[in-house]
Design a protein that fits this description.
67% helix; 0% strand; mainly alpha
Length: 278
Amino acid sequence: MPKYSLLGGCSRRLTTTHRIALAGAGTLSAAALALAAVPGGGHTTTAEPASAGRQVAYGSERLHGVKGGVTGVTGVTGVTGVKGSVTDQMADVGVKLEAIEARKKAAAEAARKAAAAKKAAAEAAARKRAAAQKAAAEAAAKKRAEAARRAGQAANRSAQRPRMRTVAAQSYANNLDGWIRHALDIMKERRIPGSYHGLYRNIMRESSGNPRAINNWDINAINGVPSKGLLQVIPPTFAAYHVPGTSWDIYDPVANITAAANYAAHRYGSIDNVYSAY
């Protein structure tokens, strides 16, 4: 039995090639017919009957030729090239997709980091503002407390120290007029009644305005307590009606006048009511 059947083997081989090849199927069929028409030596033969053995051999030779032609046309060059091109394109597309995806991931990561940095900066700024506000509030509270403390200290000092009345220093002439005016200011402060005219009138009658005058001849002198000074006051009366803040010297003009006016106020109502020895 022959190794290959012309129709069966060729048909199976051509069908497999046709499935693989994407282009050139018509060209392969034409080449197969040409090889079937031309013998292996390249000579054209007439259509004469051949024996079965020769047909088998010839068929085998033709089959080998067809196989070689088909292989040369399709097997190595066409299909391999198409597959390689498609594979390369798919690889390029995959690389591009991976690059795009990587860029997307990088952009997303950069955006995330930027958002995190912005949030951190905002939080730091908020903490800084809060700290500044707290420090300002504490400083204001401390300042108010210090002001209150100082005010309290000032109030305590004011309460502890009596308020003194400021009095302008008054100067008086060292003469009868000055002595009377000085005595009148003291009498006014001590609420002792009397006038300039009443004092002057009695002084002129008793001593003629001499602060060192002394009576050594009346009954008081006989009793050992002579009258002395501008208004001729005996020592016991001077001591009893002495006005605080004046001198204890009975010959001091102001002290003598105020003590006599104080005695007259108690006995006569005022020095103005005295017109003779009193």
